[in-house]
């Protein structure tokens, strides 16, 4: 009888141990699943935070630091080819004045919703004339080594207003520039940034 009772007790104890073991395993499995779920959720949140930060930084850079523009026409060839992409500095003219020869990204004076890119030819106070295939600034021929065409037609005389700039394309005979705008000059307020380099079909830094 005593032996039978001891055997029964051992059996009960063994069953209890098995149940405890099973319950412990179930809890560990449940904890592991919860931990894995938490880790996945944490990883998703981390990635979302990274993406949001990247979008915000990109927005701030593109709004306040650089301008990234695609040139759709041939008006600046061969300096900038149609389809080239241009990076410009929005900050450059906070410390410098535009100079003759600068390539500038700006709001088109006749429609500020459109971005243009041209070269500064006349600065405030300049007297400009175009004739005989040459551009004259204050009576002197402007040397333009970046051109590979002869400027056709005659234009002017014209005096550039204060705080304004006379803009021409490098592809002089196929460029909708200051000669043809209703507002024949670019104001300083319309400047978006100075073109620094082009890329996509080839990299080149502008002088």
Can you characterise this structure?
With 207 residues, the chain is α+β, with helices and mostly antiparallel strands. It folds into two domains: 1-64; 67-205, Umud Fragment, subunit A (Ribbon), CATH 2.10.109. It is 32% helix and 28% strand. The chain has helices at residues 2-64, 92-95, and strands at 66-70, 85-89, 103-107, 115-122, 127-131, 134-137, 140-141, 155-159, 164-168, 186-187, 191-199, 204-205. The strands form two sheets. Strands 1, 2, 3, 4, 9, 10, 11 and 12 form an eight-stranded antiparallel sheet that branches. The model has no long low-confidence stretch (mean pLDDT 84).
Question: What is the fold's blueprint, element by element?
Answer:
Elements: H1 2-64, E1 66-70, E2 85-89, H2 92-95, E3 103-107, E4 115-122, E5 127-131, E6 134-137, E7 140-141, E8 155-159, E9 164-168, E10 186-187, E11 191-199, E12 204-205
Antiparallel strand pairs: 1-2, 2-11, 3-4, 3-11, 4-9, 5-6, 5-8, 6-7, 9-10, 11-12
Counting structural domains, the number is 2
Class by SSE composition: alpha+beta
Instruction: Tell me about the largest β-sheet.
Output: 8 strands, antiparallel
CATH architecture of the largest domain: Ribbon
So, the CATH homologous superfamily of the largest domain?
Umud Fragment, subunit A
Q: Could you please say which CATH topology of the largest domain applies here?
A: Umud Fragment, subunit A
| Unreliable stretches | none
């Amino acid at each position: 009888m005593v032996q039978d009772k001891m055997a029964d007790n051992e059996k009960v104890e063994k069953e209890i141990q098995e149940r405890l073991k099973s319950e412990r395993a179930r809890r560990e499995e449940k904890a592991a699943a919860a931990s894995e779920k938490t880790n996945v959720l944490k990883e998703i949140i981390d990635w979302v935070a990274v993406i949001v930060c990247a979008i915000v930084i990109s927005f701030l850079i593109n709004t306040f630091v650089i301008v990234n523009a695609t040139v759709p026409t041939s008006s600046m060839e061969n300096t900038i080819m149609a389809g080239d992409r241009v990076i410009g500095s929005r900050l450059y003219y906070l410390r410098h004045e535009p100079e003759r020869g600068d390539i500038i990204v700006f709001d088109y004076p006749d429609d500020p919703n459109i971005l243009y890119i041209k070269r500064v030819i006349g600065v405030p106070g300049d007297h400009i004339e175009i004739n005989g295939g040459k551009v004259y600034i204050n009576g002197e021929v402007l040397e333009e080594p970046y051109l590979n065409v002869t400027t056709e037609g005659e234009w002017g005389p014209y005096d550039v207003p204060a705080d304004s700039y006379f803009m021409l394309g490098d592809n002089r005979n196929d460029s909708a520039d200051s000669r043809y705008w209703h507002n024949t000059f670019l104001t300083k307020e319309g400047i978006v940034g100075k073109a620094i380099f082009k890329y996509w079909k080839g990299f080149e830094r502008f002088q």
